[in-house]
Amino acid sequence: MKHVLVQSIINVPKDVKIRIKEKTIYTKGINGELSKKFNNKNVNIIYKKNDSNSLIVRCYYNNKSSSAIVRTITSIIYNMIIGVSKGFTYLLKIVYSHFPISVKYIQNENTLEITNLFGLKRIDSFFIPSSVQVCTNNLNKKEIILLSKDIETLGILSSLIQNKCSINNKDCRVFIDGIYLASKEVNSLI
C-alpha cells in the first residue's frame, strides 16, 4: 500500500545545535560534534528554527520499505542528539570459572589487551577509536566501562569484544568464560 506522505518529527533540545548541508546532518552539543550523511534520494530532512526547534524527516509517495527508512533515519538522528547532549555508557562484565582473565588498557597506543582467555597464552588486542573512552578504574572489579557520544562505534566495539571472547562448539552452560555486555545506559559523564 502506498502512502502519500510519511513523516516523523524530532524535538531538538535547546542545548543542541543542528546544521544541515546537502544530505549531511551536523549535531553539536556539550559532548562535542557528530555528523552523518544520508544518501536517500526520496527522503527530505527539514530543520525548523522556531520556538519548537523541530526536525522533520519526510518522504512522499512511498512504499513499506521507504517508510521504514524514514523511521531508521529518525532514530539515527535521535541517537546523535542524545549522544552529543548526554552520552552513552556500555558496561561489559568479565566472567570466568577457572582461568582468570586479565584486561589491560594501554592509553598511549589506544588498545585494550585481553590475556589468559580460556587459559590460552595469546594476547587479544582491540583498537579503541578516539571517540570511545575506557574507564580504567574498574578493571580490577572485573568490568569494563566504555563511554562515547557515538552509539554506532560503541556498539560495534562491544560486539567485537564479546564475539572474540566467546567460546565456540562448547556447551555455554558449562563454559561460561568470556566478556559479556551487561548494560547499556544514557548518561552525562563524558
Structural class: alpha+beta
User: Number of helix segments?
Assistant: 2
CATH architecture of the largest domain: Alpha-Beta Complex
Terminal Cα span: 45 Å
Number of domains: 2
- Helix/strand order, N-terminal first: EEEEEEHEEEEEEHE
The major β-sheet equals: 4 strands, antiparallel
Please state the overall shape, judged from the principal axes of the Cα atoms: elongated
Key terms for this structure?
Outer Surface Protein A, domain 3, 2 domains, elongated, three-stranded antiparallel sheet, 2 helices, 19% helix, four-stranded antiparallel sheet, 13 strands, alpha+beta, 190 residues
What report would you give on this structure?
Belongs to the universal ribosomal protein uL6 family. Keywords: Nucleomorph, Ribonucleoprotein, Ribosomal protein. This is Ribosomal protein L9. This protein has two domains: 3-85, Alpha-Beta Complex (Outer Surface Protein A, domain 3); 88-186, Ribosomal protein L6 (Outer Surface Protein A, domain 3), CATH 3.90.930. The strands form four sheets. Strands 11-12-7-13 form a four-stranded antiparallel beta sheet, with helices on one face. With 190 residues, the protein is α+β, with helices and mostly antiparallel strands. The termini are far apart. The protein is built from two helices and 13 strands; from the N terminus they run ββββββαββββββαβ. It has helices spanning 64-85, 151-164; strands spanning 3-11, 17-21, 24-29, 32-37, 43-48, 54-62, 88-95, 102-106, 111-115, 123-127, 132-135, 143-148, 178-186.
